[in-house]
Structures are given as structure tokens and as C-alpha cells.
């Protein structure tokens, strides 16, 4: 990891919370002038620590209140199958997270849909295009915590 000083860490914490702040506002919050603050943010972007700047949307208001966590198991462990699976998943806008896992299941998906019928359509499309040996679907009842903010590690 690149060397981060206290100001870099402050900038990252602030930007994770609200990326819409102007450079002037950021600089004021961390005690810098505008140009050095801008340079630091540029350095954080170029280093890859800041990957993207996005808007976080409200799924409920958009009519997507159902989150499904699907555990997928396959009996096909070839590079070709993995590529087919990854390509198919990348094309599905309902899949907001996909992880290859260690343990009993090979993949964990988080799928956001309007209702159970929409998930059923997603499921049928998945099994039509990608051979899987098992899938366990868990429907979220309540979201207790959801954040995109990472804990900023303390200096070493």
C-alpha cells in the first residue's frame, strides 16, 4: 500500500462520506490550501486507492426493494466455465456483487430486484445460460447496515 499520512487518511474518510464536496471544502476540512489538496486527491486517484466516484442510489425509491443472496455451486471447475459464468454475471444488472468463495459454495451473489417474480426470471435465465449444480437463495428481510465506506487503516 502506498504511504499515507494523516491528511491523506482524512481526505479518504471525507471523500468516502461525501465525494460531492468541492476542493475548497475538502482543503478547509483538512487544513490545506486548494492546490496542495487537489494534488493529494489526484495522487490518491492515480495510485488506485480512489477507484471511482459514484452516486449511491436508493433501491426502495427505484422500486428494487428485494435483496437476494444466492450461493452458487458448480461441479465444473474449468477456466472455460468460469469465464462463461463471469461473462454472464457481468451482463446482469440485477447482480450488484459477485464473489468467488472458499467453502461449501463457489460463488456468492447479491441480487437486487423488484419482487420474487423478478428473481425467478433471473434464476431461470441463469440456469439456462450457465450450468450450476446447486443454488441456495436467501431473501433479506431487513437491511441492518450497508455502507461503501472502508475502514481507513491507521498509520504503521
UniProtKB/TrEMBL annotation:
<dbReference type="InterPro" id="IPR019885">
    <property type="entry name" value="Tscrpt_reg_HTH_AsnC-type_CS"/>
</dbReference>
<dbReference type="InterPro" id="IPR011991">
    <property type="entry name" value="ArsR-like_HTH"/>
</dbReference>
<dbReference type="GO" id="GO:0005829">
    <property type="term" value="C:cytosol"/>
</dbReference>
<dbReference type="InterPro" id="IPR011008">
    <property type="entry name" value="Dimeric_a/b-barrel"/>
</dbReference>
<dbReference type="GO" id="GO:0006355">
    <property type="term" value="P:regulation of DNA-templated transcription"/>
</dbReference>
<dbReference type="Pfam" id="PF01037">
    <property type="entry name" value="AsnC_trans_reg"/>
</dbReference>
<dbReference type="InterPro" id="IPR036388">
    <property type="entry name" value="WH-like_DNA-bd_sf"/>
</dbReference>
<protein>
    <submittedName>
        <fullName>Lrp/AsnC family transcriptional regulator</fullName>
    </submittedName>
</protein>
<keyword id="KW-0804">Transcription</keyword>
<dbReference type="GO" id="GO:0043200">
    <property type="term" value="P:response to amino acid"/>
</dbReference>
<dbReference type="GO" id="GO:0043565">
    <property type="term" value="F:sequence-specific DNA binding"/>
</dbReference>
<keyword id="KW-0238">DNA-binding</keyword>
<feature type="domain" description="HTH asnC-type">
    <location>
        <begin position="4"/>
        <end position="65"/>
    </location>
</feature>
<dbReference type="InterPro" id="IPR000485">
    <property type="entry name" value="AsnC-type_HTH_dom"/>
</dbReference>
<dbReference type="InterPro" id="IPR036390">
    <property type="entry name" value="WH_DNA-bd_sf"/>
</dbReference>
<keyword id="KW-0805">Transcription regulation</keyword>
<dbReference type="InterPro" id="IPR019888">
    <property type="entry name" value="Tscrpt_reg_AsnC-like"/>
</dbReference>
<dbReference type="InterPro" id="IPR019887">
    <property type="entry name" value="Tscrpt_reg_AsnC/Lrp_C"/>
</dbReference>
<dbReference type="Pfam" id="PF13412">
    <property type="entry name" value="HTH_24"/>
</dbReference>
Amino acid at each position: 500500500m502506498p504511504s499515507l499520512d494523516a491528511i491523506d487518511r482524512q481526505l479518504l474518510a471525507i471523500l468516502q462520506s461525501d465525494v460531492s464536496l468541492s476542493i475548497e471544502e475538502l482543503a478547509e476540512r483538512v487544513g490545506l490550501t486548494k492546490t496542495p489538496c487537489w494534488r493529494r486527491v489526484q495522487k490518491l486517484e492515480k495510485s488506485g486507492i480512489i477507484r471511482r466516484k459514484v452516486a449511491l442510489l436508493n433501491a426502495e425509491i427505484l422500486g428494487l426493494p428485494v435483496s437476494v443472496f444466492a450461493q452458487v455451486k458448480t461441479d465444473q471447475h474449468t477456466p472455460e466455465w468460469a469465464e462463461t459464468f463471469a461473462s454472464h454475471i457481468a451482463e446482469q444488472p440485477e447482480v450488484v456483487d459477485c464473489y468467488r468463495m472458499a467453502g461449501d459454495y463457489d460463488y456468492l451473489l447479491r441480487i437486487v430486484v423488484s419482487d420474487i417474480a423478478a428473481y425467478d426470471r433471473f434464476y431461470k435465465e441463469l440456469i439456462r445460460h450457465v450450468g450450476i449444480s446447486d443454488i441456495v437463495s436467501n431473501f433479506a428481510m431487513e437491511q441492518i447496515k450497508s455502507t461503501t465506506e472502508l475502514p481507513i487503516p491507521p498509520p504503521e
